[in-house]
Amino acid sequence: MQLVQATRDALLKPLTTVVGIVERRHTLPILANLLIRKEGRHVYFVATDLEVQITTQAEFGVGDEQVATTVAARKLLDILRALPDVGNVTLSLTDGKLIVQSGRSRFALQTLEANDFPTLAQPEQWQVSLGVAQKNLKHLFATVHFAMAQQDIRYYLNGMLFVFESELLRTVATDGHRLAHNATVIEGVESRHDVIVPRKTVLEMQRLLGEVDDQVLIDVGSGQIRFRFGQVELISKLVEGKFPDFARVIPTSYSRHFLINREALQGSLQRAAILTTDKLRGVRIQLGDHHLRISASNAEQEEANEELEIDYEFEPLDVGFNVSYLLDVLANIRNEAVQWSVQPDSNASVLITLPDDEHFKYVVMPMRI
Questions:
Q1: What does pTM read for this prediction?
Q2: What are 296's strand-pairing partners?
Q3: Rounded CA gap, 16 and 117, in Å?
Q4: What residue stretches are annotated with the DNA polymerase III beta sliding clamp central domain (predicted)?
Q5: How far apart, in whole angstroms, are the C-alpha atoms of residue 163 and residue 184?
Q6: Is the pLDDT of residue 168 over 80?
Q7: Of 290, 197, 235, nearest in space to 52 by CA
Q8: Bridge-partner residues for 229, per DSSP?
Q9: pLDDT over 70 for what percent of the chain?
């Protein structure tokens, strides 16, 4: 029975959308598979890892029948990528195998029962529902995601906090050493809701979102969050736990500020980082009369020194930082200049903000060099 007939590129589009969450290592064999469900012209592609589920659809089904099967996701994707972009590709079901045919190329792939494919049960009622422009949500993810923890035993740090308020959607991430915060204006939320979205979901959404004004519909229910945009629906379980009080971490009383060119600072830090060690990524920042000095050294007694001119007229300050934390933020913002706010105490954190964005805040704790 023929299921699909389409060009190679038309087939690749929905497959590349969903295959990102398919785990290479899995406990259930069927989790390596993709669910293909055909309802007449409509063909749905579904992938899940039991925590996140992505569904996308296209209209290239053949016939009026309703058919469903599952097939190894990455094998199918690799085959389609390797096929020449000439003529149409057909997918057919024959004797329990999915037949992929294009020109004189023919592949028979093993399938597993569609009824055994695990799908996430959705809440009967969503507590929060709103729309956000794709480019705004993508910007929130881009300017905050790098501060998420990775495999921290404090599991609630391995994700991003979403705070839904009456006029703002805030995103916050921290790994205990730095914290990133941003927000965008929203409508339609009556009371505050805080949820923690898993790291994998955040990274997947970042990959899928575009720099467009089209809306992303966000729904939050009991233990789940759902994103719908274009032909894509992504449902994710939420992380349980109490996220740290981010408002207490963000300094509000810093009185010493200076602007610095982002690209110049990024270049100086990248060069200094060459002479840091993998374990100790420390650089020394010295603020003095109208200058910022960056220095780094290693066990081989090699040294790097950089100097930048800044509008700083306060008493000197000598403080150490993990250079990766500084480079992360500079790589994910696009502003020409960033603003630093400091205290005279070398044990105090630094606050990095943007001159034209009141919502973005990045706090970095110092380190001993």
A1: 0.92
A2: 304
A3: 19
A4: 132-245
A5: 11
A6: yes
A7: 235
A8: 232
A9: 100
d(CA 112, CA 126): 33
Task: Write down the residue that tokens 């990766």 correspond to.
Answer: 324
- Calculate the CA 206 to chain-centre distance: 4
CA distance 42 to 38: 6
Q: Is 236 exposed, middle or buried (CB count within 10 Å of its CB: 0-12, 13-18, 19+)?
A: buried
Residue with tokens 């700083």: 312
- As given in the structure block, the two tokens for residue 290 are 């109208």
Q: In the structure, what pLDDT confidence band is assigned to residue 265 with cuts at 50, 70 and 90?
A: very high
| 256, amino acid identity | R
Structure tokens at 240: 């349980």
Short-list 351, 348, 346, 347, CA closest to 362: 351
pLDDT tier at 33 (50, 70, 90 boundaries)? very high
- Assign 266 a pLDDT band (cuts: 50, 70, 90): very high
pLDDT, tens digit, 9 for 90 and up, residues 297-336 = 988 889 999 999 999 989 999 999 999 999 999 999 999 9
Cα separation, 349 vs 358, whole angstroms: 19
Amino acid residing at 23: E
How far apart, in Å, do the first and last CA atoms of the chain sit? Answer: 68
Give the full edge-to-edge strand order of the sheet including 282-288: 303-309, 291-297, 282-288, 317-322
Write the single-letter amino acid at 272: A
